[in-house]
Amino acid sequence: EIVLTQSPGTLSLSPGERATLSCRASQSVSSSYLAWYQQKPGQAPRLLIYGASSRATGIPERFSGSGSGTDFTLTISRLEPEDFEVYYCQQYGSSPYTFGQGTNLEIK
Amino acid sequence: QITLKESGPTLVKPTQTLTLTCTLSGFSLSTSAVGVGWIRQPPGKALEWLAFIYWNDDKRYSPSLKSRLTITTKDASKNQVVLKMTNMDPVDTATYFCAHSPLTFGDYWDFWGQGILVTVST
Lengths: 108, 122
Prior knowledge:
The structure holds 2 protein chains of 2 kinds.
Chain A: E1 4-7, E2 10-13, E3 19-25, E4 34-39, E5 46-50, E6 54-55, E7 63-68, E8 71-76, E9 86-91, E10 98-99, E11 103-107
Parallel strand pairs in A: 2-11
Antiparallel strand pairs in A: 1-3, 3-8, 4-5, 4-9, 5-6, 7-8, 9-10, 9-11
Chain B: E1 3-7, E2 11-12, E3 18-25, E4 35-41, E5 48-54, E6 59-61, E7 69-73, E8 80-85, E9 94-101, E10 111-112, E11 116-120
């Protein structure tokens, strides 16, 4: 099973700043099958990025994904107030599909 | 417009079997090369993948829960996906989500149901 470790656990930033979220895998993720989701309290996750770097439909350009192998990054170029939520990475390159423990992006 | 909706009991007793239904709208497992997965989230905790069913009836399960899980489609129309989990325990208390996978670049999930909170308690 591939274990995904997200860092930091909590990230405190201000609107307008740049956010960099990390996701490290215990083994190489096949075909860069790595997704990022945003989750608001009481809601289902929302797909942001798939294939490590492809933005999902309707996702603003300020969200970008990068990485391959075992190291992946989600970058939010300029934080908007609505971006301060919890973010999860997920690998779907090999079963069982696994999620990271999440990064809580909070307003500083 | 793709939507999914989970339904089933919100309270089950320990040792009982949980049966959840995911009703699909805007797509069907009989007409598209797509998949549907079940994912759960205990209160305040991270997401956990449970099971996946493909349009061709291929199925995958989380190894840690495989002996307790069954995923099927409800009828020939394949507009509903059913998840059964046996021998429920209080640690299985969670919000259960079903989600659509387009299978265009692997099994990620682009549309999710709202989720259903299932509590396991006497």
